[in-house]
Every structure is written in C-alpha cells, then in structure tokens.
Amino acid sequence: MELWAHHNAKALISLDIRTMDEAPLCAAEVNLHLPTLQLAHVKGSPQIVERNEKYIRQNPMDVIAVFFALEGEAFFYYQGGLEALRPGQAVMYDVDRPFMRGFSSGVREMVLTIPREAYRELSGGRDLLRPKVFDFDRQGAADLHMHALAKLVSGTLQDPAADPQPAEHRALELLGLLASGCRSGTGEGYLAAAKACIEDRLGDPALCPAVVAAAVGVSERHLARIFAAENGEPPSQYILGRRLELARSILADPHKSMTPVGTIAGRTGFASQSYFSRAFKARFGVTPLQARRSAGTPPS
Hints:
Residues 192-294 form the HTH araC/xylS-type domain. Keywords: DNA-binding, Transcription, Transcription regulation. Helix 3 packs across helix 5 (164-179) and helix 5 (164-179) packs across helix 6. The protein contains 12 helices and 11 strands. A hairpin with a 4-residue loop joins strand 2 and strand 3 (38-44). Helix content is 44%, strand content 22%. The mean pLDDT is 90.
C-alpha cells in the first residue's frame, strides 16, 4: 500500500489510499508525462482514495484531473454532493478540493491531469468549483468532445513511442472546448471530435457533413474550413476515404473471406454496391474482388 501511494504521489496524484477489506492490494499503473499533460492507465482491486482538507494542505497538487471510468461502478463524494459513476462516464475535478472515491469491485480507468493555471487559460479564467460529469462511451448519449478526448488518451497511452506533441495539442484543444462549454476553441478540437463522430458512424449511410457538423456544434461551412486546413480535402471526401479504407481492411481479413462484397458495401455505409465498386477502383486502382484476391482471400 505504501509503495502504491508513493508511486501515485510522484507519478500522478498524491492520495490517501486504503483497501475496502483485509485482502492485499493488487494494482498497476502506466504513466505518460507530456510537457503539459500527464496521462495514466490505472487498474486495481477494491479500494478507497481520498483527499480531505488536511491532506490537501499537506500535499497540494494544483491540477485538474479527468477520470475516465472503464470498468466497475464507483462513488465520488465531494463537498456538497455525491456522484455515482458507471463505466463510460468521466468526471473532471480540481483535486485540491476535498473528495473521496470508492471502487467496491475494483478500478480500471484512464486519468488525465492538467495544471490548474493551464486549465484556467482554457476555461477563460473560470475555476472548476464542482465536478463535471460527462458520458464518453454511450451510444447516442456521449458528449462528443469528451468521447474524442477519451479516444485520444487511450490511443496515446497505447502508442507512447509515437510523437506525443500533436496528441497533446489536440487534447488541450478538446479540454478547452469542454472547459468553456464549447464556446471557444480552434479547429484542432472540433476536428478531433468530428473524426471521432465519423469513425463511430462509418456504417451509417446517413452520415454526411451536415450530420457531423451538427454533432460537433459548428456550421457545415466552418467544418469544411477545418478539414480543408488540416487535410486539404472536404469532409465528404474524408468520409468516403475512411469508408473505403475500412472496406479494404475487411476485404483483406481472412476471417471475413466469405462475407459478400455487397454486405461489406452495406457495412461501410454504401447504399449501392455498384457505387462502392466504382469508388473503390477509383481510389485503389483495383476492384473489391481483385483486392480480395491480391490479399490471398477467396473471392465471394
């Protein structure tokens, strides 16, 4: 327990930690320190973590934390209230305000911390006085910007060898949108949210730039400017390209060698198999069946 508390204090957040029974603590943590942000993936057996007023005076952190619950129900006590959190929810909170978190069935979560002053710059000078709770992984109910941030944190932790600077910049943009209530922000945050929306709905034939713009909270014209600045192509072409890339990966998958081409077209958002075949050949220079053959999977 002392080793676990010592590691957290140095690598993430200083916490008063105790188990919920007499069983020994089992826990693991992966940490990634970026110039401004700190990221972590945490898992452990049932435990309670706390920062009360006395503990905070002795161990000030001056950071805002975002906790992304991946598994297990949890409670979050703070001055003035209680939040019951389920997997797929994130809570944003100033850790120098008293709180207690409990994990009766164990914990698996991602954590992001940002210095309080950096957060205040993003929020327009506003302090975080109460916890903000967001859904980041519920169909139809997720906050798109928090959903994009969760994907970004997960991908960065899984591939720490990649250049983290673009990921951190995009994460800060998303945090700015979340902290300010989406009233400010540059294209980076909106672009990340738009791409997350597109990835989640590639199989939906109704997906189009207007749908993406409405989900992100910008005009269709502004969305087009954001994509042009980043990718040099309009959102419609980006959506088409991602659908075709997904279709090509399915065609190359030996476990899906018996899936008809028409079915693949439908699963990747194409209403017409003939249009899918034409678009596929225009992009890759071969038909879907030729792509399947060249990948070594039987045609269907």
